[in-house]
Design brief:
19 helices, Rossmann fold, 6-stranded parallel sheet, alpha/beta, about 450 residues, 2 domains
C-alpha cells in the first residue's frame, strides 16, 4: 500500500532514503533549508555524488512520486509518516550535536498540534540511545499537546548505508531494524518495506539506536585492530595481508573489514564511535575499546608519511604526488578523509604536494588550500617530475596503474601504497622502491 512520506532533511541519508521509498511506489516529499538543493532535486539532479541516485531521481520525479520543498509545515501536514533525517555532527569534544534533531522535533510538534489524523514520527538520523523517546518524543508532546501512542506514533529506523553503494544497500538490505513504542508505530514503518524479504527486527527505539552505533563501532574497531597488527608486521618482516587472510578464514572473524591501510574516514565511523564513547563516559561507563579505536585511527594516516620519510629522508622541497582525496572510492565525500592529515603533514614538513582525485577535488579545495599544494585533473600531470607518490584512495583508475607507467612519469622511484592495492614484487622488479602499510621488509634485522 502506498504511503505519504515527509523526509525532513534531504542530505545523504534523507535523499537516498526518500528516493528509494519513492521507487517502491510511496509518495515522498523531501524537505530541506537550502533552496539550491531543493531546486536541483526538483530538476532531477542529485546534489550529492552517489552511483544510481540520479537515475532514481529522474524516474521517481517523472512518475510524480518525489518532490522537494522548503516548506516543512506543508510537507508534515500531508504526510502519514514523517522521517527525521537531519545531520547529527560531532561537537568539539566528540559528543553528538542534536540541535538539528531538536529543531525538527519542534517543527513537527507545532504542526501536529493542528493535525486531525494519526502520524508516525520516525527518527532516521543516527542518534545516541534514548534520543527518540527522551528528546524527540518529549518535544513533540510538549509542542503539540498530544500523547505518543495515543495521538501519534513514534519509532526509530536506523540506516545501514555504505557511501558509494547506498542505493544498492537500501534496495537490498541485509536487515531492517524498527524500534517502535507500540505495535501501530511498528506496523506503519514496516509497511514501507513490504518490497524486501530481508529480516525485520522489531525492538524498542533505544535498542534500535544502539544497534546502529554498535554495528559501526564494531566495524571501526576491526579496522583499527588490523591496522595495529599491520604496524606490528612491519617490525617483523611480515605481510599483514597474509595475516588477515589467515584469520579471516575463521568464520567467526570473516575477512571483511580486515584490510590494513591509512585508516577509516567518512561521515559515519569517526563521528559515531566518538559519539558512543562520549555518551558512555557521560553515563559513567567509559568504553575504552572505543577510545583506543579512535586513537589508532587518528595516527594511522600519518604512517604513510613515516614510510616516505624512511626512504627519502627530509621532505623539504620534495615533490610528492597524492593519489586520491575522498575518504573512499565512488564518493566525493571529504569528511574525515585520510588525505587531509597526510597532505597537511607533508606541507608542514616542507614538501610540495600535487594531488588528484576523479571527483573530490572541488570538495577538497574547500578544506585544503596552501601555496605548496596544487590540484591536477589527470594522473599523468600529477605524477610528472615527482620524487614519490602516496596512494591514499583506492579508486579503480589508480589500481590499474602499472609500474612502467608510474616510472615513466616520476622523477624519483618511491611508491607508498596506503591501501595495499598493488603487488610489491612488480614494482621492485622495475626498480621502484615500494612501501606498503603492514608490509615488513624481508631483510628486517630487528627481530
Amino acid at each position: 500500500m502506498s504511503k505519504k512520506v515527509a523526509m525532513i532533511g534531504a542530505g545523504y541519508v534523507g535523499l537516498v532514503t526518500g528516493a528509494c521509498f519513492a521507487s517502491q511506489g510511496h509518495r515522498v516529499i523531501c524537505v530541506d533549508v537550502v533552496p539550491e538543493k531543493v531546486e536541483q532535486i526538483n530538476a532531477g539532479i542529485t546534489p550529492i555524488f552517489e552511483p544510481g541516485l540520479e537515475d532514481l531521481l529522474t524516474h521517481t520525479r517523472s512518475e510524480g512520486l518525489l518532490n522537494a520543498t522548503l516548506d516543512a509545515v506543508s510537507a508534515i501536514k500531508e504526510a502519514e509518516l514523517v522521517f527525521i533525517a537531519v545531520p547529527t555532527p560531532s561537537k568539539e569534544d566528540g559528543s553528538i550535536d542534536l540541535s538539528f534533531v531538536e529543531e525538527a522535533s519542534h517543527t513537527i510538534g507545532r504542526t501536529l498540534k493542528e493535525a486531525e489524523h494519526w502520524k508516525t514520527i520516525v527518527v532516521k538520523s543516527t542518534v545516541v540511545p534514548g534520543t527518540t523517546e527522551n528528546i524527540v518524543g518529549k518535544i513533540i508532546e510538549e509542542e503539540s499537546g498530544k500523547k505518543r501512542g495515543a495521538d501519534f506514533g513514534l519509532a526509530m529506523n536506523p540506516e545501514f548505508l555504505k557511501e558509494g553503494k547506498a542505493v544498492e544497500d537500501f534496495l537490498n538490505p541485509d536487515r531492517v531494524v524498527i524500534g517502535a513504542i507500540d505495535p501501530k508505530s511498528f506496523d506503519e514503518v514496516k509497511a514501507l518495506y513490504e518490497w524486501t524479504e530481508a529480516p525485520v527486527l522489531k525492538t524498542t527505539p533505544t535498542t534500535a539506536e544502539l544497534i546502529k552505533y554498535a554495528a559501526n563501532s564494531f566495524l571501526a574497531m576491526k579496522i583499527s585492530f588490523i591496522n595495529e597488527i599491520a604496524n606490528y608486521c612491519e617490525l617483523l618482516g611480515v605481510d599483514v595481508s597474509e595475516v588477515a587472510q589467515g584469520i579471516g578464514l575463521d568464520e567467526r572473524i570473516s575477512p571483511k573489514f580486515l584490510r590494513a591501510g591509512a585508516g577509516f574516514g567518512g561521515s559515519c565511523f569517526p563521528k559515531d564511535v566518538a559519539a558512543l564513547y562520549s555518551h558512555s563516559k557521560h553515563l559513567g561507563r567509559e568504553m575504552r575499546l572505543l577510545k583506543a579505536t579512535l586513537e589508532v585511527n587518528k595516527r594511522q594516516p600519518l604512517r604513510t608519511v613515516e614510510l616516505l620519510r624512511e626512504e627519502i629522508g627530509a621532505l623539504t622541497e620534495k615533490s610528492i604526488a597524492v593519489l586520491g582525496l575522498a575518504f573512499k572510492p565512488d564518493t566525493d565525500d571529504m569528511r574525515e578523509a585520510a588525505s587531509i592529515p597526510i597532505i597537511r603533514k607533508l606541507i608542514e614538513e616542507g614538501a610540495m604536494v600535487k594531488a588528484t582525485d576523479p571527483i573530490a577535488i572541488p570538495n577538497a579545495q574547500k578544506i585544503l588550500s596552501h601555496s605548496n599544494l596544487e590540484y591536477y585533473e589527470t594522473i599523468s600531470d600529477t605524477l610528472k617530475n615527482t620524487d614519490a607518490l602516496i596512494l591514499v584512495t583506492e579508486w579503480e583508475m589508480f589500481k590499474q596503474l602499472t609500474p612502467l607507467e608510474i616510472k615513466s612519469l616520476m622523477r624519483g622511484n618511491i611508491v607508498i601504497d596506503g591501501r595495499r592495492v598493488w603487488k610489491p614484487e612488480l614494482f621492485q622488479k622495475h626498480g621502484l622502491i615500494y612501501r606498503g602499510i603492514g608490509l615488513g621488509r624481508r631483510d628486517n634485522k630487528s627481530i
